[in-house]
Automatic annotation (TrEMBL):
Secretion signal span: 1-17
Alphabetic keyword roster: Heme, Iron, Metal-binding, Oxidoreductase, Peroxidase, Signal
Keyword Iron carried by entry: yes
Cofactor names: heme b
Protein name: Chloroperoxidase
Family: Belongs to the chloroperoxidase family.
Domain of life according to the entry: Eukaryota
MF terms in GO: metal ion binding; peroxidase activity
Length: 254
């Protein structure tokens, strides 16, 4: 199923944008993952590799590459993720042979970067915390109302309240299923943090929500939803923006 999504998305990406979509930036067309490519548990980084904002191989990534990619694709202030990059390097996760670079798959280190209760990955206890899990994601997508897009215009968007409740429910599921669930500080910050991250990255300021079509493409195909209307954010985002959404998520009663 996942392979079919990748192939379909790749063919569509090579075609001209539809009447309601936007063209992909030249040189940053979507390419499906290839055998031998490295990918991470983080859809946001994988998307950047799929579009060539990061090396398409997902390998030998340095700080300047991350800075350039998040700025060019998502309009984040270029140093927004410097501390996250430094953490990955300081944890000595790299398999590249160069202490200042990493491959995307290196980030699957459990309870260092990766954590239990992911929205789209299974827990480390079950054997694969790296790859997209259709089973885990199906539950998350249902709670996000991802496939309900009517009858009102607002039904096309994910709000902070909906995302916060879906995140909390996913963590409860993981805690019930995983006898080794790791409720570490990393997990307790990482879970709401990743929800804040995807909302901030895909937020439509005019609509006051994250378009469901954009979220679907981002998680399921690891693709920027240009053909569904994704546009480069007019207002630059940064760590403060993510932090504000983090606090809003924590404030939602769950």
């Amino acid at each position: 199923m996942k392979l079919c999504l990748f192939v379909e998305a790749g063919l569509i990406g090579l075609a001209a944008a539809g009447p309601w979509g936007n063209p992909e930036p030249k040189g940053h067309e979507y390419h499906p993952v290839r055998p031998g490519d490295s990918r991470s548990p983080c859809p946001g980084l994988n998307v950047l590799a799929s579009h060539g904002f990061l090396p398409r191989s997902g390998k030998n990534i340095d700080k300047e590459a991350v800075r350039s990619a998040v700025s060019a694709a998502y309009n984040y202030e270029h140093t927004t993720f410097d501390s996250a990059f430094d953490d990955a390097v300081n944890f000595k996760l790299t398999t590249t042979g160069n202490a200042s670079t990493f491959n995307l798959a290196d980030l699957a280190a459990h309870d260092k970067v990766e954590f239990d209760g992911s929205l789209s990955r299974n827990d480390f206890y079950f054997g694969d915390d790296l790859h997209f899990s259709p089973v885990i994601w199906a539950t998350t997508a249902k709670r996000l109302g991802l496939y309900k897009t009517g009858p009102t215009e607002q039904d096309k968007y994910i709000t902070i309240e909906v995302a916060a409740k879906a995140r909390a429910a996913r963590v409860k599921d993981a805690m019930a299923a995983n006898p080794n669930f790791n409720a570490s500080v990393n997990q307790m910050r990482g879970s709401p943090g990743t929800t804040a991250l995807f909302l901030t990255t895909l937020w439509d300021d005019k609509a006051g929500g994250a378009p469901k079509a954009w979220v679907k493409a981002w998680f399921e195909e690891e693709r920027l939803a240009y053909k569904e209307g994704y546009t480069f954010p007019a207002v630059q985002r940064n760590g403060t923006t993510i932090g504000d959404n983090f606090q809003k998520i924590l404030a939602v009663p769950v």
